[in-house]
Amino acid sequence: MRPTACSVHVRGLVQGVGFRPFVYRLASLHDLAGWVLNGAEGVEIRLEGRRDGMRRFLRELKTEAPAAAVISGVDVIRANACGLVGFVIRESESGGRPTTRVSPDLATCKACLAELFNPHDPRFAYPYINCTDCGPRFSIVHRLPYDRASTTMARWSMDAHCQSEYDNPSSRRFHAQPVACPECGPHYRLLYGDTQLHGDDAVITSAAALLREGKILAVKGIGGYHLACDARNEAAVHALRARKFRKEKPFALMVADVEVAHSLASLPPEGEALLVSVARPIVLAPAREELAGVAPDNTEFGLVMPYAPLHHLLFAAGAPNVLVMTSANRSSEPIVYDDEQAIERLSGIADAFLIGERPIARRVEDSVARIASSGPVILRRGRGYAPGPAAVLPTGVPILALGADLKNAITLVVDGQAFVSQHIGDLQDADSYRAFHETIEDLVSMYNVPREQLVIAHDLHPDYVSTRYATEFAGANARAIQHHRAHVASVLAERGLWDERVLGLAFDGTGYGDDGTIWGGEFFLGSLRGGFDRVAHLRPANLVGGDAAARFPVQAAAGFVGELSDAAELMAAPFSFPRHFLHATRLLQKGVRTFTTTSMGRLFDAAAALLGFTRPVTYEGQAAIWLEHLARRSAAVAPYDFPMEGHQLDYRPLIRAIIRDRSQGRDVKDIARAFQGGVARGTHDAASSLCHAHGVGTVVASGGVFQNALLVEDLRRLLEEGGLRLHINHAVPPNDGGISLGQAALVSFGH
Ligand code: ZN
Ligand code: FE
Fold first, then answer.
1. What is the tens place of the pLDDT at every residue in 47-91?
2. Which ligand is nearest to the CA of 518?
3. Are strands 252-255 and 322-327 parallel, antiparallel or unpaired?
4. CA 721, CA 718: separation in Å to the nearest integer?
5. Which ligand is nearest to the CA of 742?
6. CA 12 to ligand 1 centroid distance, Å
7. In angstroms, rounded to a whole number, what is the distance separating the alpha carbons of residues 648 and 651?
8. Tell me, what's the pLDDT at 147?
9. Is the CB of residue 15 less than 8 Å from the CB of residue 177?
């Protein structure tokens, strides 16, 4: 048969993930000649050989691609054979601006694990084993292009063995930048009181023993330090809570293997797939057993599988098979990633330090995700996902979108690719604000964007620190985007729906509205291209006391209860509100420090207070989460009324029903369920009539309130029964972590 030839262009996340060696092996397997190289916009391949081999090659190019690769398109162009012999990996073509994408960090692969536990392998039990399919990327790179000299591995030079693998195109470690072995690479040490232990083996064995004894360990991982302890040791878990000033927020659990995960939580097949995916997020799943102090008042556990070789080695060395594995910080501070800072800041918390020599270039927190009926939903975007692109936008102008002040993350749009940063945190915290600056510098310089060309998108809120940053940094190049429109836009942007007219729901705690009041229960009509008009909202309530309102559910209740009940009734059993409620009610009556809000988040807080959550919250969103989990314990009950009056959803029937049923002694979990069902039903009825009135078939829902999986599933069922579609966020969080993508999208369309 005559040889044929073709050129293949592969687009997507195909650089820095072992794609060229994979192509090399595939071409060799099918006896094809030619070459492969990293081009300016993806991977370029030239093939010559028999037609059937080429057909198999093109099929397997997609089906057998490295786990971390994301192929967004393959173009094949016929060419004339010119008698090429053999297959080679060519040097990269270098253009001006680096268009190579930085890969997210990847969990240790199966092949490396096999070596890790093979006593005859040169990297047996070596905590820094990695290959082109796995290992750190974003967390070790200082700048582009991604080669060893630009990473935190620069100070270790490869020995002959590592170098030979690095240079060999048929090796799994061909151009694996962080490649290392015990002879030439970094090691771990253990700091315990005054003693310092060296030697990976001894260090890991001792660390596992300390964990068994109930000690709290600071463990250096991929994107920062974690605090670890035996999750079944109640005393250890409580000590960790006390020392970390983290009263009730659930702790993530690292499980030794999938079997342990299944024994702790009910994981559907999609949940297991997410748990073992290369991104290795923390996956929320319904708990099957109680672990004291781990997740108070919560029906779910957050589970994560080992993702660094060190984690696998700790479990193999006898560490308890369920470990609390929580970001090393005090309450809301960002995760610690620097060794000296770790020792300084964590000395009052950790009993011992497991310190690795390989520096971390930047902090990257663990990601958090859950499975919805429409697929995985990311609640916190960090390790494994950042800084991957989350959307393609139609613009050649570089855009920097700053997000919101809470749950901050930023987005940089370069050449139409929207790169969303890792979770940064709450900018009110000084360290988080510093991290915000660092992350901006980091992304802008990594992609070599000329600063004077940057258009800056920011929130409409005049008092946000990110807004102040935008006006100082960009002046006339700053564009304000209303918070809730950004929420809705984030869903459409990640799906690439640029022109579809939708009904957008944005339900959250707070966001600055067009009229200067605090919004949070908003209905919009429009599209990314055309912009969004507010067409309906929650009936406004008067709240007292700015940001503090979010900390005290009874303070929210004071606003929503209003004239529906007298204060004395709620001070008595079964409500037993604290005096704080009376105080808030008096301020409201006098109109002191009050503001108007349409916040759906505060409505959930008010309902939670009426159901018994009368203390202050200890973390953001706690009362609403408490209410959702209470409702999950109930069977189906009839939903309360939540009618639309004009263009306002009237919460008063909901509140009245809760007060009535609770006074009559109805089970609180059934009341919670009837409330949840009522919110879903009322939202559906309002959405459906708006859709029909405006000829729209798609509803889009975003905002922190839609982290409530029960609400989303109730709403989806009702909408789909009525022939409407519901889209929610999957690539970026529905909470304010997704705001920057929505801002970038709206600015890219000229809004
Ligand atoms: Zn590997
Ligand atoms: Fe929000």
1. 999 999 999 999 999 999 987 788 888 999 998 888 888 898 887
2. 2
3. antiparallel
4. 5
5. 2
6. 21
7. 9
8. 82
9. no
**CA of residue 499 to ligand 1 center, whole Å:** 42
Residues 6 or more apart in contact with residue 96 via CB below 8 angstroms? none
Tokens of 353: 């330090």
Give me the sign of the Cα torsion angle 607, 613, 616, 619: negative
Q: What distance in angstroms lies between residue 615's CA and the mean position of ligand 1's atoms?
A: 48
pLDDT of 480-508, one tens digit each?
999 999 999 999 999 999 999 999 999 99
Q: What separation in Å is there between the alpha carbon of 243 and the centre of ligand 2?
A: 31
User: Are 372 and 471 spatial neighbours (Cβ–Cβ below 8 Å)?
Assistant: no
Nearest listed ligand to the Cα of residue 109: 1
- Cα pseudo-dihedral 64, 67, 71, 76, rounded to 10: -20
Model pLDDT for residues 100-159, shown as the tens digit of each residue: 578 899 999 999 999 999 999 999 999 999 998 899 999 999 887 788 998 999 999 999
Dist. CA 363–CA 534, nearest whole Å: 38
Q: Which ligand is nearest to the CA of 705?
A: 2
Distance 354 CA to ligand 1 centre (A): 23
* Cβ-proximal residues to 608 (8 Å cutoff; 6+ apart), any chain: 553, 623, 624, 626, 627
Please name which ligand lies nearest the alpha carbon of 487.
Answer: 2
Give the number of whichever ligand sits closest to the CA of residue 111. 1
Q: Find the 13 Cα to ligand 1 centroid distance in Å.
A: 18
The answer for residues whose C-beta is within 8 angstroms of residue 532's C-beta and 6 or more apart is 485, 488, 489, 504, 524, 525, 526
Cβ count near 569 (within 10 Å): 13
| Ligand 2 centroid – CA 736 distance (Å) | 5
Report in angstroms the alpha-carbon separations of 543 from 392, 399, 547: 40, 36, 10
Among 228, 198, 189, residue whose Cα is nearest residue 346: 228
Q: Nearest-CA neighbor of 336 among 255, 227, 231, 241?
A: 227
Instruction: Tell me how far the alpha carbon of residue 538 lies from the centroid of ligand 2, in angstroms.
Output: 15
368 CA to middle of ligand 2, Å? 18
Only one residue has tokens 């997210």, namely 104
* pLDDT the model gives residue 96: 46
What ligand is nearest to the CA atom of residue 133?
1
CA 171 to CA 22: how far, in whole Å? 10
Q: Which letter does DSSP use for residue 407 in this model?
A: S
Residue 244 Cα, ligand 2 centroid: separation in angstroms? 27
CA 26 / ligand 2 centre spacing (Å): 47
> In a 3-state reduction of DSSP, which class is residue 155?
coil
User: Which chain residues have CB less than 5 Å from ligand 1, an ion?
Assistant: 109, 112, 131, 133-134
CA of 424 to the centre of ligand 2 (A): 15
Q: Are strands 648-649 and 531-538 parallel, antiparallel or unpaired?
A: parallel
Please give the model's pTM, rounded to 2 decimal places.
0.91
Return d(Cα 394, Cα 745) in angstroms, integer: 9
* Centroid of ligand 2 to alpha carbon of 742 (angstroms): 11
DSSP track, 549-613: GGT-HHHHHHHHHGGGS-HHHHHSTTT---HHHHHHHHHHHHTTTEEEE--HHHHHHHHHHHTT-
